[in-house]
Each structure stands twice: as C-alpha cells, then as structure tokens.
Specification:
The structure is a single chain. About 50% of the residues lie in helices and about 0% in strands. The protein is an all-alpha fold and about 120 residues long. It has one domain: 434 Repressor (Amino-terminal Domain) (Orthogonal Bundle), CATH 1.10.260. Helix 2 crosses helix 3 and helix 2 packs across helix 4. About 15% of the residues are buried.
Length: about 120
C-alpha cells in the first residue's frame, strides 16, 4: 500500500514550515510508539497500513495521506487531539476578525405605527 505524493504536487512546492511541522510530527509519532514499546510491524498492522508507510509517517513524509496520519494517531491513542486543531473556540485570529465585524452599537427598531382601517 504505497501512498505517495501526487505527481502534480512535488514535495519541493510545500512551504518550509509545513515540512518542518510534518518532520516534527513524524518524530513525535515515532517517540510515542517507542514509549509504548510497540514494534513497527505491529503498529502498522493495527493501522492497516504497510510497515513502509508507517516508517514514512515517522519520517514526516508529506506524501502520506492525512487520513493515514490520523489513523496512526488513533492507534497510539492520540486521535482526540486532532479534533481540537482547528476548533473555533481556540482560533484567536478568527475570533478577532469576527469581533471586528460586530456592530459598534445596537439600536432598537422603532415600532411602526399600525395602519388603521
């Protein structure tokens, strides 16, 4: 099961900070697996991926599908953190931008006089 990067998206076109984050994520995944004393072969089997793909994840390979990274985190018991990554409650930039759109003041709408018969 080789999940490589699509030909229209070369690795070199990814921003350097993205590559650094993926590499750190891969190393953190490797460390988490080792702390749990799970061999690569067993971890890969639990994730239903090949040993080669698991090793690519541990290297932070950008060609590995995001779903594979999340599955690996599930196997390690760390998947709950993924749900919080873009949580609106912790999106400080989004909250600030939303706050800027709030009206400066709120006015009561005047009651329109009812037209008589």
């Amino acid at each position: 099961m080789n999940r490589s990067i699509p030909p229209n998206r070369p690795t070199g076109s990814l921003p350097l900070p993205v590559l650094h984050v993926l590499r750190k994520l891969g190393h953190d995944i490797r460390d988490a697996r080792r702390r749990r004393r799970i061999p690569v072969a067993i971890a890969a089997q639990r994730a239903s991926i090949s040993k080669t793909t698991w090793l690519k994840v541990e290297k932070g390979d950008p060609g590995v599908l995001a779903g594979t990274y999340v599955t690996v985190l599930f196997v390690l018991g760390l998947v709950d953190r993924v749900a919080q990554l873009a949580d609106p409650g912790t999106d400080t930039v989004g909250l600030r931008l939303e706050e800027e759109q709030l009206p400066q003041r709120v006015r009561n709408k005047r009651a329109r006089p009812e037209s008589g018969s």
